[in-house]
Amino acid sequence: MSRGGSFFMLVVSLAAALVLQLVELPDAVAALRPLWLAMTLGYWALSSTSQPILPLAWLTGLCCDVLYDAPLGQHALGLVTVVYAVRKLRGTLIVFPLWQATLLLAPVWALYVFLMFWIDGLSDHPADLAARWLPLLTTTLLWPLAATLLSGLSARRSHRRAVLP
Amino acid sequence: MLWWIWAPQAPGVSRGSDRFLNTIAEASRKPLFPRGPALGLKFLLFAALSIALMVADTHGERLQPLRQWASWALQPVLWAADLPREVAELAQHFRSRESLIAENEKLKRQQLELQGRLLRMESLEAENERIRALLASATTLDRRVLIAEILAIDQDPYRHQIVLNKGSRDGVYKGQALVDAGGILGQVIQVNPSTSVALLITDPDHGIPVEVNRTGLQTVALGRGDGQALSLPYLPGNADVKVGDLLVSSGLGGRFPAGYPVATVHELRHPAGESFMEAIAYPTARLDQGRQALLVWNERPPPAAELAPQPPPVAQAKAKAKAKPRSPARAKETSREPRR
Asked: Cβ A58–B288 below 8 Å, yes or no?
């Protein structure tokens, strides 16, 4: 597997996740928006140890803060925490089948949601408590799909590179 | 130093020679002696950096240039996120002829009606000018305005903000009022070179000085944070307010132009055992519909205190509005009102 190709995939998928995080959704489902960035970074932290995920997570988080007009560092802290937690759980996660890994990752997303909620509370942006936990549900449900999709994409790319001279 | 941070935890196992010996995929190999700093240490470093940034960002405006520069650099992301809407609008180009004709008819009728009203307005304006001239005060009714497009960007669902496609290049300034065809929408809280962010009047951080159009009673309308309603918590218990009353901006505090409709009173609440009452009002502006908004230039330049970058604009507007009770009686009511 070539590091250059994989790094390209990593950056492209992060940019796509950032756009998905911003795209307008109808009001009825806006609160259900999955944590695209946390999911993408979680996947990369899980699948490759040879990438500088932690600095990238921090930078992406800062971009997210600027776009959301949140206190600088809020999402950065959350995403860095997600990457760290996934890396720590990696030994267990890669031997588990996908559905068990999905369940094991739910507390990680919960930690992220809680951090965002807590910092929002500290910076005087109290929010509806019930609606805050909805992304946790959609993220967990979408994780198997997203992980399969991302691994399929990166595998195809590395395969093509291996075949071509 | 930079490499120390950037370096992945398990850097390059020499690639050429052991490719044939080691059959484990390179991505899942774990070297015996990992180089680079420990993961935990790096995590602590980044977490500490984030917390330091947050503290610096919430206490003061020193990071404002960084934020502006970054939001300028992130313009492509905003455009990409706005693309689906553009595509949807493209699809609307191919609408049926009948609907266009019907819409045309409707607009013509509306234009005629408005024209009629405008004729009366012109004579009233002239009369107003004369009367004002008698009073020797100088106020113009014409204002400089600019149409801004609302970008289809979902912000944090728990903050009521919108992104506009006009920025400091078009002369937009912080604290500028934003209106639509129905009334006041909100105010600009952040200005970037070609975009700006506006806070809607329904945000819980937002307060706007209003007066009841029927009686002239001055009060403050605060956002309730549910995206639909405003609350008027500082009303005396015997205040003359009825359901259906129109609230217009009073222009106190100098941030919002006076006389624009803000909301209509929907419900009155008398908390048991309290000497004040609370009114719930629905904004007259269509906050969640429409793609265009008008940026209004206030005729008075903001006072020097507002130009100083120290206090955040919204809190300041709120404090100012609260600190300006009109009559002594109302001042007493406000001070008796419990802190919430």
From this structure: no
